[in-house]
Design brief:
The protein is of the alpha+beta class. The chain contains 10 helices and 8 strands.
Length: 480
């Protein structure tokens, strides 16, 4: 019984720890990269590209095919061994092995392998981009939860101050030092703060659910994150010149690499299309054999009367007959040779070369070449557009990060000012030199300043990480 109780205690402890688990940002990112559907689809695309590469390599190997057949014939049929027409029932079998090898096909097989290598590389870049995008989505959702929790803490801490003020104001009202209107004003402020706390709690819950859905986690009720230890960590990217960041982005970003590989793919497609205008030379080798269980007839000497005498002519001068002796044969039925013997008795080999020269095919080859030329030009334009888009995005991220830093610094200054104003108003209110309404307004401005500082802080953290990502730092190595 004690063992059972111990096991139950351990299980309850493990379950409690699992339910109380708080996810770190790194854990969320890693989990998303392992379970996100879009990432899994990109990984499947990479596997498919690897299969295409293997198939392309297989074009350098000979093709080997074997065939076999068994049939039973009744009535008048051609014996596949003797090629004679027979009216009988017999069983026949045949088999063959054929080997083919392409000696030259306009270099299309070589370029197909090269194209498969490029396609695999492009799929890898697409997977990398998908992982970067998912990591940013997770980081943004994670920081949103932290922001909402920080705002909730601000509201709760300030509401504690309000409750203390309610008690102090009530005592002063009871003593006749303050009018009852001041107490009502503070109580109204408390009610508004309680409503704001409820809204803030809903925001935290909604942002947690949104993050859990992004991670494909179904347990919304117990899902929570580690909301401590995250601060502004600048590794020096924000101080770099925009030209350096842009240059690094063009070297490292997957968007450019994908567009570059698309250009290379279009070039290979054009080369493959042009290869169709050249002759194709193939070699082939074939081996075949056959078997039939039909009986046959052959001429043999009559053992009872091996020879016969027949007249073969007449002597013209005397009229005397000329006779000759000939073998006397009879038809004798012969059984079919054994199966194994027939396999090598009836086998045959064929080999040779095959040359195919394209002359006219209804403009199909020329049309395909022209289409691939157009695709090549289109891919070049897409590469140019990708570079322009990246340049615009990097500039926007750079400006956003600089602007977010200024906004954060301004929010810090505003909070310092509001802190002094609030402390001054509180001191005046405590000694009865200001009314409850003015104190409430000062406290509201202080609360808003703290909330704005939280917003500016996490907004700057996110935009700084976006800039670092464009500088080439992997999403899994971003520091918070």
């Amino acid at each position: 019984m004690k063992k059972i109780v111990s096991i139950l205690v351990v299980l309850i402890t493990i379950t409690s720890q699992a339910q109380n688990k708080k996810w770190t940002l790194i854990e969320c990112v890693q989990y998303a990269l392992e379970n996100n559907i879009s990432v899994k689809q990109s990984e499947l695309d990479l596997e498919a590209a690897d299969i295409d590469r293997l198939t392309a390599i297989g074009s350098f190997l000979p093709s080997i095919n074997a065939s076999a057949g068994v049939s039973e014939n009744t009535g008048l049929s051609f014996n596949p061994v003797t090629n004679n027409a027979q009216t009988t029932t017999f069983l026949s079998a045949s088999g063959s092995i054929n080997v083919g090898y392409t000696l030259f096909d306009g270099l299309r097989n070589i370029r197909t392998v090269q194209r498969a290598e490029i396609s695999k590389l492009a799929s890898q870049y697409r997977l990398d981009k998908m992982k970067d995008d998912i990591s940013l989505f997770v980081a943004n959702g994670y920081l949103q939860v932290i922001l909402n929790k920080a705002n909730l803490e601000v509201l709760k801490s300030q509401n504690e101050v309000t409750k203390e003020q309610i008690q102090r104001t009530n005592d002063l009202v009871e003593a006749g030092s303050l009018p009852r209107g001041d107490l009502l004003e503070i109580q109204a402020t408390d009610a508004s703060e309680q409503q704001a706390i409820i809204n803030a709690e809903n925001s935290v819950r909604i942002s947690l659910i949104s993050l859990a859905q992004l991670l494909l986690i179904k347990d919304y009720e117990t899902f929570d994150i580690e909301d401590e230890g995250y601060d502004i960590v600048d590794v020096g990217i924000a101080d770099k010149d925009i030209s350096e960041i842009l240059s690094k982005a063009k070297e490292s970003r997957s968007e450019i690499k994908i567009a570059e590989q698309d250009v290379e793919l279009a070039k290979k497609d054009l080369q493959i299309a042009k290869g169709a205008t050249l002759p194709t030379l193939s070699a082939f080798f074939g081996y075949n054999t056959r078997y039939a269980n039909t009986t046959s007839f052959t001429q043999v000497a009559d053992p009872d009367n091996p020879t016969v005498t027949q007249q073969i002519g007449v002597v013209e001068a005397t009229g005397q007959s000329v006779v000759g002796e000939f073998p006397n044969t009879i038809l004798q039925e012969v059984n079919a040779d054994p199966f194994v013997d027939q396999l090598y008795q009836n086998d045959g080999i064929g080999y040779g070369l095959s040359l195919s020269i394209p002359i006219f095919n209804g403009f199909a080859i020329n049309g395909n070449i022209k289409r691939n030329k157009i695709n090549l030009e289109r891919s070049k334009f897409q590469l140019e557009q990708a570079e322009l888009d990246l340049e615009s995005t990097v500039y926007q991220a750079y400006v956003d990060a600089k602007g977010a830093l200024k906004s954060y610094e301004a929010a810090e200054s505003a909070l310092e000012s509001q802190q002094l104003a609030y402390n001054y108003a509180k001191e005046r209110y405590d000694v009865g030199l200001t009314n409850a309404f003015d104190f409430s307004q000062s406290k509201l401005r202080f609360d808003n300043a703290r909330i704005e500082l939280n917003r500016a802080k996490y907004d700057y953290i996110f935009k700084l990480k976006v800039l670092e990502l464009y500088f080439g730092i992997p999403a899994t190595e971003l520091k918070f």
